[in-house]
Amino acid sequence: MKVCPPERLQKRPLPGIRIRRDDVFIVSYPRSGNTWLRFFVANLIAPDEKITFRNIENYVPSIYKSADTLDAREGRRFIKSHNPCYELYPKLIYVYRDGRDALVSYYYYATGKNVFSGSFEEFAFSPFVEQFTSWKEHVASAHDFASKYPDRILILRYEEMLTGTLSALIRVPTFLGLGCDAQAIAEAVEKSSFKHLQKIEKKSGGETLGKRFTFFRSGKSNQWQQHFNPELYRRFLRENGEILLRLGYRL
């Protein structure tokens, strides 16, 4: 089994950036819909551009890739982050996903990028999955923050984005005060659909050029049922069952 050494894992504090009052952060536990939402926001604020992995940093930069250039950016900034530093974000959109599916997707992402090698069972409780804290802590803290500061956070559910994309995402421009009309929102939704993003990735290249790895792999729900053996599932539920129920998921 191979896993990135601890010093390479992203820690909880934000990378050294100066936060502005009008910054908006797009936040999630890894593999929970962050990049999907990131493309949607980019398509909202740059409707005349063709958004791909080659230029997404120009519109919704990642704090992990663009921290050194963020201070030089003019105007309102929309920034991707996985760090659960909710109290530091002036405003944020948070997307959460069934932790079982997030874990499966995270496994394929880590093995596809060759930062982890081993079985799913080895991955499920490895240090890798808690580099941004555990899924349980990540989502629970976001919901607790929302109960205290509802005006600073918009929470979206990944599964609702799948089954009713327009009705879920139409809340985003309102929360951001972008003043987009219905047609502009619908077009951004269409350009950010999972199938469209898969086509863009195939044509323009994925997150890292030159690597045979598909970022937008499946996007479906309930994949976890084919990956957890009974013993692993019992262990997962012991640690995460309460928050799954709190969020409305069935065990």
Write the layout of secondary structure elements.
Layout: E1 2-3, E2 24-27, H1 34-45, H2 56-59, E3 78-81, E4 92-96, H3 99-112, E5 116-117, H4 120-124, H5 135-148, E6 153-157, H6 158-163, H7 165-169, H8 171-176, H9 182-191, H10 194-204, H11 230-246
Parallel strand pairs: 2-3, 2-4, 4-6
Antiparallel strand pairs: 1-5
Q: How would you describe the overall organization of this protein?
A:
The chain has 251 residues and is α/β, with parallel strands linked by helices. The chain has a single domain (19-246), classed as P-loop containing nucleotide triphosphate hydrolases (Rossmann fold, 3-Layer(aba) Sandwich), CATH 3.40.50.300. It contains 11 helices and 6 strands. The strands form 2 sheets. It has a 4-stranded parallel β-sheet with strand order 3-2-4-6, sandwiched between helices. Strands 1-5 form a two-stranded antiparallel sheet. The longest helix is centred in the C-terminal third of the chain and has 17 residues, at 230-246. The protein is globular and about 50 Å long. It starts with a strand and ends in a 5-residue tail after the last helix. Mean pLDDT is 88; it is low at 1-12.
pLDDT averaged over residues: 88
Using the alpha-carbon principal axes, give the shape. Answer: globular
Helix-residue proportion = 40-55%
Architecture, according to CATH? 3-Layer(aba) Sandwich
Structural class comes to alpha/beta
Radius of gyration: 18 Å
Number of domains: 1
* Strand order, sheet with most strands: 3-2-4-6
Helix run count: 11
Percentage beta strand: 5-15%
Output the helix-strand order: EEHHEEHEHHEHHHHHH
| Unreliable residue stretches | 1-12
Q: Roughly how many Å apart are the termini?
A: 29 Å
Largest sheet entry: 4 strands, parallel
CATH homologous superfamily annotation: P-loop containing nucleotide triphosphate hydrolases
Determine and state the CATH class: Alpha Beta
CATH T-level fold name:
Rossmann fold
Total strand segments: 6
